[in-house]
Amino acid sequence: MSLRILGLRAMEILDSRGNPTVEVECTLSDGTSARAQVPSGASTGRREALELRDADPLRFGGKGVLRAISNVETELAQGLRGADAEDQTDLDRRLIELDGTPGKSRLGANAILGVSCAVARATAISKGIPLWQRLGEISGLRPCLPVPMVNIMSGGHHAGFNIELQDFLALPVGLSSFGQSLRAVREILYATKEILAERGLRMTGVADEGGWGPDLPSNESALEVLTRAIERAGYRPGEQVAIAIDAAASHYHRDGAYHLQSEKRSVSTPELIALYESWSRRFPIVSLEDGLDQDDEAGWRELTARLGGKMQVVGDDFLTTNPARVRESIGFKTANAVLVKMNQIGTLTETFEVVRLAAAAGWRAVISARSGETEDSFLADLAVASGAGQIKVGATARSERLAKYNHLLWLERDCGLAWPGGGLLPPVPLGLVGGDPL
Ligand code: PGA
Ligand code: ZN
């Protein structure tokens, strides 16, 4: 007998910033039930599917999600009652139709994604298979472990705009297992802390994704500190551990210019591309995300032409995990990799479609969490099932991040999954490491 959806319930829970978010519980016809929690971004792209919030200033400063909760328990529960839980594609299509808007703005992408994920998890439990395997059945992609792309220092929206660039990350491109990679980035996180303390840089707590949010004198100094931290932790920069940047450039782009206050200048698109180029000659950078504004299409084309041969040019706010946007970008050569965030688009089916498009075009894909996360480890299974080979979850601190990393340690041990590791990204020529000391 086929597995049917019997009921859906939802709860307004809190995320890692203490803001309300959605958790959905799905119960199937065989009595199995399971829950999934939905993350929430702070540095969002203009074209993301809509995260429905109540806008009632008297509750959580307007951030409540009671409307999304109610949509799950009424319209979605009624609309999906009796639906085949094993046909995720049809289920997600029905979710999209029930909403009826292009940006999932009527019922909310937070409500819809919670249902999409909760049904997948309940189905995995009912079938007696691990979640990554169930997601692999849905994706049709070859599973593998992901290399962690790990936040070490934060700026921008995630750390009170101490510096403009949002994320300085360590990417262990040349280590032989997930466990070793995780250990390396943890050691680099603490080596960074030591270096920052030696230089007398003020630090209070950690930033939204668990990394440090120091008062650095410039964006460039973050690259210099991170390179030294990789060395201090005992790894060869560029060969064993490289650097990734998430510039999140839309957030300081105004009136046609990028305003780098900590660099004490405003730059045009060609000047910013030249700055990235000069950094890439001095620091072991292998990945650059949102290097330009989300609407600077011509700039993205130029950026990809100039830097795409030696690094990942990743679209996050630029592509918003949107299959149509990704297809267009492949055609116009405006990027060569995509950041994949489930809640930017709102269903599992569309999320996997983006990964499949990327794979078919020879692009890379990075499965990513949001800065507002939960203790749900779903993303670890998603990363494995997508075969993307990279996961971006934040630092090796804060339990909403560790829920994913710690789950991956078990998957590595138990599931015989391939490790994409060494050779994942273009090697950075040695001897490029360094920069002006602070
Ligand atoms: P967000 O940022 O989750 O706050 O939108 C993460 C990122 O830009 O990658
Ligand atoms: Zn980003």
SSE layout:
Blueprint: E1 5-14, E2 20-28, E3 33-37, H1 66-80, H2 88-99, H3 109-127, H4 131-139, E4 147-148, E5 150-154, E6 167-171, H5 178-198, H6 219-232, E7 242-246, E8 253-254, E9 257-260, E10 265-267, H7 269-282, E11 285-289, H8 297-307, E12 312-315, H9 323-332, E13 337-340, H10 342-345, H11 348-360, E14 364-368, H12 378-386, E15 390-392, H13 399-414
Parallel strand pairs: 4-15, 7-11, 11-12, 12-13, 13-14, 14-15
Antiparallel strand pairs: 1-2, 2-3, 5-6, 6-7, 8-9, 9-10
Helix pairs in contact: 1-2, 1-3, 2-3, 3-4, 4-12, 5-6, 7-8, 9-11, 12-13
This protein binds 2-phosphoglycolic acid and zinc ion.
Write up what this structure looks like.
This protein has 438 residues and is of the alpha/beta class. The chain has helices spanning 66-80, 88-99, 109-127, 131-139, 178-198, 219-232, 269-282, 297-307, 323-332, 342-345, 348-360, 378-386, 399-414; strands at residues 5-14, 20-28, 33-37, 147-148, 150-154, 167-171, 242-246, 253-254, 257-260, 265-267, 285-289, 312-315, 337-340, 364-368, 390-392. Strands 4-15-14-13-12-11-7-6-5 form a 9-stranded mixed sheet. The longest helix has 21 residues, at 178-198. Residues 41-44, 166, 246, 248, 316, 368, 370-371 line the site of 2-phosphoglycolic acid.
